UniProtKB/TrEMBL annotation:
Residues 43-371 form the Leucine-binding protein domain. This is Transporter. It holds the Pfam family Peripla_BP_6. PANTHER family: AMINO ACID BINDING PROTEIN, LEU/ILE/VAL-BINDING ABC TRANSPORTER SUBUNIT. The keyword Nucleotidyltransferase does not apply. Keywords: Amino-acid transport, Signal, Transport. Belongs to the leucine-binding protein family. InterPro entries: Leu-bd (IPR028081), Leu_Ile_Val-bd (IPR000709), Peripla_BP_I (IPR028082). PROSITE patterns: PROKAR_LIPOPROTEIN. It comes from the Bacteria. One of its GO terms (biological process) is amino acid transport.
Amino acid sequence: MRSTLKFAVPIVAAALALGACGTKGGDTSSAGASGGSQAACDLKIGMFGALTGPNANLGIYIQNGVNLALDDYNKKHPNCQVKLENYDSQGDPTQAPGLAKKAIDDKKVVGIVGPAFSGESKAADPLFNEAGLVTITPSATNPKLADNGWKTFFRALGNDATQGPAAAKYIKDTLKATKPFVMDDASEYGKGLADIVRQDLGSAVVGNDTIQQKQTDFSASVTKVKASGADALFYGGYSPEAAPLIKQLRDAGWKGTFVVADGVKDQSFIDNAKTAAEGTIITCPCVPADVAPEFAAAYKAKFGQDPNTYSGEGYDSATILLDGIAAGKTRATMVDFVKSYDKKGVTKQLKFDAKGESADIKVYAYKVENGKIVSVGEIK
């Protein structure tokens, strides 16, 4: 391992110093850095999201952040190691319930980072709630997820009720677009976000359309966009469809600005869309690398690349659970620990409201320039 993770000392040392793995039942009175009962030390956290399939990159970026947090924790607790259990959903909601049951049945798993996508969260979170297994999603942004009364649900970033208005504001105030078109991919995430943008843009919207995931021919949509005279197109969905969509639009001569959200913030979008991706605006409630330079340096030392979409949020989500383990919390007591958590992370102040929503929310704009996704600042 190439990184010594020196950055973690000022960021999370105080949290980790709460204690080492506690004894079973949350009693930390006799626990030390290498102490605690074997039962309490032999614990796991889960990573739930797409690690293979068309949206795997988004899950892998999160997983990298989780692994970085685990490395840091396990260095400090060499005789009380925490392991990672991966639940590869491929971003498919139909697989989510079975994976959730698998995690629930493994009594060593005391918390889940994820689910990563909104659709799989909707399918899996009722089961996690019933079992009392805490989930902290670093990336699922559909606002309705927090409205189900799930006591185990926490979200380490802003939801689309924040991102949607920010995207609409950018379209109106920065791009000065007067004829926006809105499109979605009919997914829980994509449609939910696009509907918020539609509402905020109001009567200015000159056209709407819906495509399907795994669709490859967008000729009908291209015709609609061009016929509308749109000077901007907001697309709610993921990168596998966004890339051929904008490529076909550019090939047809459309000159407007393509605006997308966090589901497209991935290098694969640029790799597949090629030069058609240039100028695309991407909104995301995720922090740029320069917001947490020490974390970015440690991430690059370990993985050979800059942190990507939700890597920092994955690190922070895992750190909260690991701090709970350090404080002697088990599955049964982790919910209350997370509910009262209030510490500075690498992305923001980590604190939750009564519904499990992040109490510190920011949305950033990014732009594709010269084949790279670069930050253009926070959308105020």
